[in-house]
Amino acid sequence: MWVFRVLQKLPRSLNQPQQQEIEKLMQSSRGSLKEFPCIPYPKGHVLEQLDEQNKIYDKIMLAVLKQKGGVFFLHGYGGKGKTFMWRTLASSLRSNHEIVLTVATSGIASLLL
Ligand SMILES: Nc1ncnc2c1ncn2[C@@H]1O[C@H](COP(=O)(O)OP(=O)(O)OP(=O)(O)O)[C@@H](O)[C@H]1O
């Protein structure tokens, strides 16, 4: 695989921002540096994603619980956690006895929610 050959040639002394950037590129094509033990995995990458998800969660929950309403559009590369976010929000609200109706533009997409 050409990606593996390229990664093996990279210096082991990549700095954090370089590792983060490579991880983002890898994730955009459903890969991850985790598959390549020869390259250090960027520290804090998962925490950064969790922090971002926490902010989204708080923002949407606040709008719902304060009955402010709103339209929210989550976008990001594949595997970034968009579906996870919607499912988490729906579960959280349902556990508080709220009614959540999920709709999607296709039957296949609706199965994911
Ligand atoms: N905070 C999290 N904690 C644990 N697992 C998570 C978290 N966020 C995402 N994941 C996991 O990461 C994987 C990818 O997430 P998800 O399917 O939500 O991405 P997506 O952005 O909807 O991808 P796609 O655009 O390809 O549909 C899933 O297995 C999901 O369970």
UniProtKB/TrEMBL annotation:
Annotated Pfam families: PIF1
Top EC class for this record: isomerase
Keyword DNA repair: yes
Family (UniProt): Belongs to the helicase family.
This protein's UniProt keywords: ATP-binding, DNA damage, DNA recombination, DNA repair, Helicase, Hydrolase, Nucleotide-binding
Family matches, as InterPro entries: DNA_helicase_pif1-like_DEAD, P-loop_NTPase
Enzyme nomenclature, EC number: 5.6.2.3
Catalytic activity from the UniProt record: ATP + H2O = ADP + phosphate + H(+)
GO MF terms held by the record: 5'-3' DNA helicase activity; ATP binding; hydrolase activity
Co-factor requirement: Mg(2+)
Gene Ontology BP term (one): telomere maintenance
Ranges for domain DNA helicase Pif1-like DEAD-box helicase: 51-113
Organism: Medicago truncatula (Barrel medic)
Name used for this protein in its record: ATP-dependent DNA helicase
